[in-house]
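Bit of a strange request maybe. I'm writing a small parser for structure token strings and I need a real example to test against, not something I typed by hand. Could someone generate the tokens for this chain?
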Amino acid sequence: MLNILHISDLHFGPPFVPRVGQALLDIAPSLQPDAIVVSGDLTQRAKESQFKDAAAFLQQLPDVPRVVIPGNHDVPLYRVSERIRDPHGLYRKYISPELNQVLRIDGAVIVGLDSTSPRRSITNGRLTKKQLDFCSAAFADAPPDAIRIVVAHHHFAPAPDYLHDQTMPKARRAIERFVDLGVDMILGGHLHRAYIGNSLDFYPGNHRDKGIIIVQSGTTTSRRGRGREREKNSFNLVQIDGPLIRITHFMFFDQFHRFAPLSQHLFARAGGELQVDVSHAAHLQVPDYPAEIGK
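Reply from user aminoacidic:
Good idea to test on real output. This should exercise your parser:
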């Protein structure tokens, strides 16, 4: 079993909610993550103090391998000169010198791609052909049975709700490339509400039997939730158990001052079958939480 804790859109600065941040720190060790993914927007306005606070917070999470990528809020918006000359200077100083990352752990290859585009597309982001080639090289020597995961802040597919967000430019090109590379899953943020589905919901695909699981996290620690997660906070726990992928969506419940599982989603690995004992699959080792949450 491989456990991946997926958080996003921390937004350190005015929108950050300390009690929610503490609730994440409280529950994270009990989830026993083997890796942590942070899919962008660690800060609200890319200020040095905000990066310092974000870095200190990340250090309090379980000490496991991690992939952290920037979001559009991690580059200066109003400090135009800095955004043109050195848009990721503070991010590199306090969070990570690498904007595109490859993490290889037992059973998985996780590629983090910087989808920010400080000089061209601040809001919607973009990926270049060079980054897609980087992704291809990262997966070239992946073990045949390793799950292949891509992490990007900006979304490749819109959430299926009334807000109708514009997707990343040339998203279809990226999806088709990922399908050819055998990518199993994409983890992202930016939307400030969760969506767990499949790329075939939006794109016909160049291999109809090989859609990619799409896992969007809401804002984990800020008051900037949108849509049905307005003023709410969430994260995902991704568990890979052989041919089975289990994704549990956690929500913060203010009345109980804690995160608790809200929904669970089961998928077979790409091209496989979901052969599982349903009674066993429904079981997840997480802390007990008040029965009132389900009412």
